[in-house]
Design brief:
By secondary structure, this protein is an alpha+beta fold. The chain has 14 helices and 11 strands. Bound molecules: iron/sulfur cluster (SF4). Iron/sulfur cluster binds next to α8.
C-alpha cells in the first residue's frame, strides 16, 4: 500500500505549483504527478512502477475544448477525451487521419476516459518495464535492460539504444506526428509550442526520459495546423488482436495530390517501431511530383527503414513495415479511409462471407 494525496485544482498555475519544485533528493517514482483520465497512471501505480506522493487532478481546468480557426487550425484541449476528439465533426472534417488513429487504439471504454494530453504522456507497454522484479533502465536507470535477449515481439527496430529498445504505444501520436502537430505547454517561462516530432525522444543513454516536456510544465492543448491531407489519408495498423492490442507496426499517411494524380506533398509516420513516432522527411520528399505507385514506393520504404535492426523476436517487423508503408500510400492515393468506411467494408465482408 502506497499512500498518496489527491488534490483537485481549478486553475493552471495552482496545478503547476501543486507539483512543487523538483526535489533532487526524492526518488523519481515518488514525484507528484498530474492526473487526467488516469488510464495509464493508475495502472503504473497498481504495478508499483510509480508511487507518486501526490496526484493533482487537472480534470476541472477547462482544457477540454475542441475548436477550429483559419489561422491556427484545429485546437484540441489537453483534457478533452480521446473518444470526444475522434468523433468531433471538426476533427472528422479537418483531420480524419487523427480520428482513424485514435479509434484504432485501446478500447471504447478506455477512449472514453483517456485524454489527449495523457495520450502523449502514456508510457511504454514493454512487459519488463511493468515487472518491478526485473532490471529496466527506464524504470530504474542503470539497472539494465531485460528486454534485450528476452521476448522482443513488441520492441523497436529503429532508433533503439543499448540501454532501451522499447516502443511508444500510442496510435494517436503517430497521426499527430504525420500532421505536423504542435504541443502547447505552459511552464514557469510562459507558453511555448513544441513541434510534435521533437516532443518525444529516442532512448539514448537516458531512457527514463520519454519526452522533452519541462518538469514544471503542463500540456494545455495540441494544435494541428491547416493541412491539405483530409482527402487522401489512412491509418493502417497491424496487431496481434483486432481490439485492445498495441501496434506491431502502424503507418499514417496523408497525401496532397494534384489534379493529374501526382504528389504535391506527403506525410508518413510509423508507430510500433521506435521509442517515438517515426518520421523521415527525406523519404516523404521522394514522392514529390511522382505518381504514388510502383517502384517509388519501395524507395520510400527503404529510406524510412534505413538502419532498421531486429532483436530476434521482432525481425519480421522490418519486412512488415516495408509492405505496410507501400500499402498505406497506395490506399491513401485512392481517397480517405475513415472509420465509417472501414466499418462499412467489414460489414460487407461479413455479408458476402
Ligand atoms: Fe526497460 Fe526499455 Fe529495456 Fe523495456 S526495453 S526493459 S522499458 S529499458
Amino acid at each position: 500500500m502506497n499512500p498518496f494525496e489527491l488534490m483537485s485544482v481549478s486553475e493552471k498555475t495552482t496545478a503547476r505549483r501543486a507539483l512543487g519544485p523538483v526535489d533532487p533528493g526524492q526518488a523519481r517514482i515518488k514525484r507528484p504527478q498530474f492526473l487526467a483520465g488516469g488510464t495509464n497512471v493508475l495502472d503504473l501505480m497498481k504495478a508499483g512502477v510509480t508511487q507518486p506522493s501526490r496526484l493533482v487532478s487537472i480534470a476541472h481546468l477547462g482544457l477540454d475544448g475542441i475548436a477550429w480557426s483559419e489561422s491556427e487550425g484545429l485546437r484540441l484541449g489537453a483534457t478533452a477525451h480521446n473518444a470526444d476528439t475522434a468523433y468531433h465533426p471538426l476533427v472528422s472534417q479537418h483531420a480524419p487521419l487523427l480520428a482513424s488513429a485514435i479509434l484504432a487504439g485501446a478500447s471504447p471504454q478506455i477512449r472514453n476516459a483517456a485524454t489527449n494530453g495523457g495520450n502523449l504522456l502514456q508510457r511504454t507497454r514493454c512487459m519488463y518495464f511493468y515487472d518491478v522484479a526485473l532490471p529496466c533502465n527506464k524504470r530504474a536507470p542503470g539497472s539494465g535492460c531485460s528486454a534485450i535477449g528476452g521476448v522482443t515481439r513488441q520492441h523497436a527496430i529503429l532508433g533503439a539504444s543499448p540501454a532501451c529498445i522499447a516502443t511508444h504505444p500510442s496510435d494517436m501520436c503517430v497521426a499527430l506526428a504525420a500532421l505536423d502537430a504542435l504541443v502547447e505547454v505552459e511552464g514557469d517561462s510562459g507558453t511555448q509550442l513544441i513541434p510534435f516530432t521533437r516532443f518525444h525522444r529516442l532512448p539514448g543513454e537516458n531512457p527514463e526520459h520519454d519526452t522533452e516536456l519541462p518538469a514544471d510544465a503542463l500540456i494545455t492543448a495540441i494544435l494541428i495546423p491547416p493541412n491539405r491531407y483530409a482527402g487522401n489519408s489512412v491509418y493502417l495498423k497491424i496487431r496481434d488482436r483486432a481490439s485492445y492490442a498495441f501496434a506491431l507496426v502502424s503507418v499514417a499517411v496523408g497525401l496532397d495530390l494534384s489534379e493529374d494524380g501526382t504528389v504535391r506533398s506527403a506525410r508518413i509516420a510509423l508507430g510500433g517501431v521506435a521509442h517515438k513516432p517515426w518520421r523521415i522527411e527525406e523519404a516523404e520528399a521522394l514522392l514529390a511530383d511522382q505518381r504514388p505507385r510502383g517502384a517509388i514506393l519501395d524507395r520510400v520504404a527503404e529510406r524510412i527503414l534505413a538502419g532498421a535492426v531486429g532483436q530476434g523476436g521482432n525481425d519480421f517487423k522490418i519486412e512488415l513495415a516495408r509492405r505496410l508503408i507501400a500499402r498505406a500510400i497506395t490506399v491513401a492515393a485512392q481517397g480517405t479511409v475513415t472509420n465509417d468506411t472501414a466499418c462499412k467494408d467489414q460489414r460487407e465482408e461479413r455479408q458476402h462471407g
